Amino acid sequence: MARPRGANRRRFVLALLVLTSLTLITLDSRSGRSGPLGAVGHVAHDIVSPIQRATDAVAGPVGDWWSGLIDSGRLKRENRSLRAQVAELGGQQRQAQIDMKKLKSLERMLSLNRQLLGNARQVTARVVISDPGNFESTITIDRGQEAGIEKGMAVEAYDGVVGNVIDSWHGGAEVRLLTDPESAIAVQTVAQPIAGIAQGQAGSHDLVVVFDASARVRRGDMVVTADVANSDYPPDLQVGTVTSVEEQPAGLGLIVGVAPIVDFDALEYVDVFRWVPGEGPVMNPTTTSTKTSTTSSTTTTTPSSNSTPTSSSTSTTTTTTTTTTTTSVLTTTSAPTAGGTG
Amino acid sequence: MRARRVGVVLVVTVVVQVALFPHLRLVGRVPDLGLVVAVAVAFDHGPEAGAIVGFLAGLGFDLFLETPLGLTALAYALTAYSVGVLQGGVLRTPKWFTPVIGAASGTVGGMLFVGIGLLAGVDGVHGNHAYVTVAFASAYDALLAPFVFLMIGAWLREPREHVGGRRVLG
Predict the structure, then answer these.
(1) Residues of A in contact with B59 (CB under 8 A)
(2) Exposure pattern of B31-63 as b/e (b: 16+ CB <10 Å)?
(3) pLDDT per position as a tens digit, B11-67
(4) Residues of B in contact with A44 (CB under 8 A)
(5) Is any Cβ of chain A less than 8 angstroms from the Cβ of B146?
(6) For the residues A257-261, what does the mean pLDDT come to?
(7) At A101, is the secondary structure helix, strand, or coil?
(8) Are A182 and A197 in contact (CB under 8 A)?
(9) How do residues A12-63 score in pLDDT, each as one tens digit?
(10) Average pLDDT in the A230-259 region?
(11) Residue among B21, B26, B133 whose CB faces A203 most closely
C-alpha cells in the first residue's frame, strides 16, 4: 500500500489534529480541569507564573503608558470625577473619625478582645495572570492549596468582592471574576434585605440583577452580598452600586444594572476567605486602610494700604493633607448549607 | 523546518500571549499571537506545518483559558491550514498583503472559535459582543502580522546547503 504523500498526507495530518482537538474538547467539557488535563494546566501556570511576575515590573509601566495612550479621554473624565470625590470624602472622613471613637467605646463596653479575633481566616495572594483571553474574566493568583485555598472560596479586594475560586492547585488558584458570564452571586441592597442573583454579562463590566417586583431599588443604592443559604460568599461584602433600574411588565420583577466597586483591571492583591459553604459561622476582623487626600483652601482678606471701605487684597493658601485611617470591621458569617450559588 | 526553533517560537508565543499582552490591550482585547505565528509558518512552510504549529500554540494558550482545552487549538489549526492552502495560489505578495492576511486570519480564527465554542456550550461567546471582540482582535492581529511574519521568516529560515561549495546556515 502506498504511503500517504503530498495532499493526502496534509489531509491526514489535518484530520488527526481535528480529531485530537475534538477529543480534548469533549474530555475537558465532561471532566473539567480536575483530571490529568487539569494537571497539565496547573504545571503550565506554575511555569509561567514566575515569568509573569518578572515581566510585571517591565510590562506594568509599559501597559500603563499604553492604556494612557488609548484611554486618555476617559482618564481625563475620570480624573475630574475623582477630584470631586476627594472633596466629598473629606467630609466623610471627618464623620468616620467620629464613628471610630464611638466604635472603640462600644468595643470597650462589650469587652471585645482583639486576641479573640486573632484567627483571621483570610489569605492574601498576588494576582499573577490577569484575564488572558477575550471571552472570559478570570485571574490567577500565586497561592493555592498549600495556603488552604479551595474551590468555591470567596475572593475580595480591599474595596469589594472580586469573585470566587474555580480551581486550586499547589502554588496557585484560578478565580472567576464577578463580571464573567458564568458568575452568579446572591446580593441585596443595603436598604432592603430582598435577595436577587447578580450575573456577569459577556462584553460588559456591569452586572445584571433580577429582583422581586416588591423590592424598592433606586439608582445609587449600595449592593452587598446577601445572607442566604447555599451562597459561597459571606454576607455584607460590598459588590457595587445600582446604575439602572428597569421594571419588567406585568410585575415580573426589576432588572437592575450594578457597577462593581472593584476595578478589575487594576487588581494586584486579593484576599481569599478560607471558608466554604456549610462550614459554620466565621468571625473575621477585616482591616481596611483608607488613604484620603483632602485639599483645603484658606482665604485671607486684608485691607489694602490706601484702604477704602470697599477695597481689599485677597490671598489664598492651599493645603493638602494626607491621612490614613484604619478601620476594623467585625464580620460575622452565618452557616449556610452545602452547595453554592456561584 | 527546524524543530528546536519551532519549539522556542511556541514557548515564547505562549508566554508573551499570557504574560505581556494582557498589559497591552487594544479596546480591552488581546491579539491572537499564536494564530498570527501559525499563519506566518503556513505562509512560509505550507499548510501542514502551519496546522501543527497552530494546534500546538492554541493548545498552549488553552492551558490558561477557562474555555475547553482544544478549542483554540482547533480554531488556530484550521485557520493556518486554510491560509497555507490558499497561499499556494498566490504568485506575488505585495507589502500590504501581510496586514490583510493577519486581519483575515484573525477574523476566520475568531469566528471559528465562536462557532465551535457555541457548539461546545461556552457561555462567554454569545451575542454581538463576540463579533465585536473578534473584529478588534483581528485589527490587532493585522497590526502584529508584518512584524511576526518578518521574525518568523528570519528565525525559521531553512539552512541553505552547499552555497559556493560550503554549507551555510540560515
Answers:
(1) 24
(2) bbbbbbbbbbbbbbbbbbbbbbbbbbbbbbbbb
(3) 999 989 988 888 888 888 899 999 999 999 998 898 999 999 999 999 999 988 888
(4) 60, 63-64
(5) no
(6) 91
(7) helix
(8) no
(9) 999 999 999 999 888 887 766 667 777 788 888 888 877 777 777 777 777 7
(10) 85
(11) B133
> Which value does ipTM take for this structure?
0.83
Q: How does residue A289 score in pLDDT terms, banded at 50, 70 and 90?
A: very low
Q: Which of A273, A297, A281 is nearest to A335 (CA)?
A: A281
Residues B59, B65, B70, B75: is their CA dihedral positive or negative? negative
> pLDDT-based confidence at A195, cuts 50/70/90?
confident
Tell if the CB–CB gap between B27 and A166 is shorter than 8 Å: no
Burial class (CB in 10 A: 0-12, 13-18, 19+), B6: buried
Place of cell 525559521: B156
Q: Quick check: A266 contacting B, CB < 8 Å?
A: no
**Is residue A31 within 8 angstroms of chain B, CB to CB?**
no
Which residues, 6+ apart, have CB-to-CB distance to A95 below 8 Å?
none
Q: Under 8 Å CB-to-CB from A19, ≥6 apart: which residues? A: none
Residue showing cell 486573632: A118
Q: Answer yes or no: are the C-beta atoms of B156 and B47 closer than 8 Å.
A: no
**Does residue B26 belong to the interface with chain A, where contact is any CB pair within 8 Å?**
yes
DSSP code at position A231: B
User: What burial class does residue A12 get, using C-beta atoms within 10 Å of its C-beta: 0-12 exposed, 13-18 middle, 19+ buried?
Assistant: middle
